[in-house]
Amino acid sequence: MGKFITIGYGDSAGYERTAEEVRAAAHEHDSRLRAGGAEMGIAGEPVQVRNHDAAGTQVTPGPFLRSDLPVAGFAIIEADTLEEATRMVAGTPCAVAHGVVEVWPLQS
């Protein structure tokens, strides 16, 4: 079984224009993923950390990556294949509410 990092992107406009019953089902889906062991959370405000050549740590507020939609949350899930991981996140709020979910395989 492999581990995957997921990054959900979405904004309140996309969420609000999604039917309430679809959103409710997506939140129930997340609850089932959590019950199955997925670690999930809503994204807070990030910082960038640099320590080039181990010469001293520099911390800068804000994200390094930019996207059309804001980062909404992260999860760590376990699945046998990338295809299974994508099926697992296809029902999450970002995926169904006009956002997108990236699935990143963790390689050892």
TrEMBL record:
<comment type="similarity">
    <text>Belongs to the YciI family.</text>
</comment>
<dbReference type="Pfam" id="PF03795">
    <property type="entry name" value="YCII"/>
</dbReference>
<dbReference type="InterPro" id="IPR011008">
    <property type="entry name" value="Dimeric_a/b-barrel"/>
</dbReference>
<feature type="domain" description="YCII-related">
    <location>
        <begin position="52"/>
        <end position="104"/>
    </location>
</feature>
<protein>
    <recommendedName>
        <fullName>YCII-related domain-containing protein</fullName>
    </recommendedName>
</protein>
<dbReference type="InterPro" id="IPR005545">
    <property type="entry name" value="YCII"/>
</dbReference>
